[in-house]
Amino acid sequence: MIRVEPVRSRAERRAFIDLPFRLYRADPLWVPPLRSDVAELLDPRRHPFHRHARMQLFLARSDGGRVTGRIAAIRNEAHLRIHDDGAGFFGFFETERDPSTARALFDAAGAWLRESGLRVMRGPASPSTNEECGLLVRGFDSPPVVMMPYNPAWYAELLEGYGFRKAMDLLAYYRGHAQQPERLVRMAEALARRHRIVIRPLDKSRFAEEVELVRSIYNAAWEKNWGFVPMTAEEFDHLARKLKQVVDPDLVAFAEVDGKLAGFALGLPDLNRALRHMGGSLWPFGWLKGLWHSRGIDTFRVLTLGILEEYRKTGAAEMMYLYLLRTGPPKGITKGEFSWILEDNATMRAGLEKLGADLYKVYRMYDLPLDA
């Protein structure tokens, strides 16, 4: 018999955070997150996401008291204001390979969302589309890159067996070499001359001003995308403070046309290469292991690229991609993941395929009507 109860105490919150470390202990592809980062993300007093959202954590336990699964139910007021679709979210879903545990967790999350006045349960989003989201359904032969989720292949069976259906696929492309596609280079450079496009790196001495430029582009360039929710200034500043410690200014590209900002792209070294050796903690020796293994990072993730609508099809996106692909190899970075891309974003997908990138992982967002 499985029972599911809300997380109320510090000990229960610790059990919620610790569960994946037991479930994935023997999985060589799983990358343990820093426990402190997860604790901050879940804490309404410390993370700005909670200023516009409510979240309830649940733990599933067996008769003997062993924790067998976890889930979060989330009402995101910012999403509801933008989309007005009655959708609530589930996230942080982890379970033993037991359909009864999964059913009990989905029952609890669905009941909480229904009582919150919502009509659809969507996910996984941990806790939103601005953080880790999507269930891995293709690409189980390699570990996730920085800030991307991971799960066993059989999780999809649990969701679909419960009644969840695909809402949208999020795609990850991979390019495993540093060679420049000469034909695309010539075409992009010709377009850049015609449209007077200039690419420049991040100026870290003006970090606060640069962050504000990125935020303005981010919220404008993605506003029409499926599931997009603008980040608040507080959320963006919080993320920027964390990334400032690890961002390489040369892997951030700004596109300008006649001195006006047209778009930006953010590449981040794949810190998961170091995190996987740190055991989820900086102390006592996690930081040292992370520092040691960070020397061998040869991959980066382009985790966001945005172009203002009036500058699309000018070659600005291709020029930023080419800029990042040129600046990586001198730093030992010769491989890249471009993620995530909405499956219906034909323009972005075509551009990546011209660069020689291959679709290699698929993450799925699911919906379940709560009156089902």
Instruction: Kindly provide the name of the CATH class of the largest domain.
Output: Alpha Beta
Mean pLDDT: 90
What level of helicity do the residues show? 25-40%
CATH architecture of the largest domain: 3-Layer(aba) Sandwich
Radius of gyration: 21 Å
Q: CA-to-CA gap between the ends?
A: 24 Å
Gross morphology is globular
CATH topology category name of the largest domain: Aminopeptidase
- What letter string, H or E per element, gives the SSE order? EHHEEHEHEEEEHEHEHHEEHHEHEHE
**What can be said about the biggest beta sheet?**
13 strands, mixed
Low-confidence stretches: none
Give the name of the CATH superfamily of the largest domain: Gcn5-related N-acetyltransferase (GNAT)
Q: Could you please describe the fold and organization of this structure?
A:
The chain has 372 residues and is an alpha+beta fold. It has two domains: 3-168, 3-Layer(aba) Sandwich (Aminopeptidase), CATH 3.40.630; 175-365, Gcn5-related N-acetyltransferase (GNAT) (Aminopeptidase), CATH 3.40.630. 34% of the residues lie in helices and 28% in strands. It has helices at 10-23, 35-42, 77-83, 99-115, 155-162, 182-195, 207-221, 233-244, 272-275, 286-293, 316-327, 346-354; strands at 3-6, 53-61, 67-76, 87-95, 120-123, 125-126, 132-133, 135-138, 165-175, 197-201, 252-257, 260-269, 299-307, 335-342, 358-369. The model has no long low-confidence stretch (mean pLDDT 90).
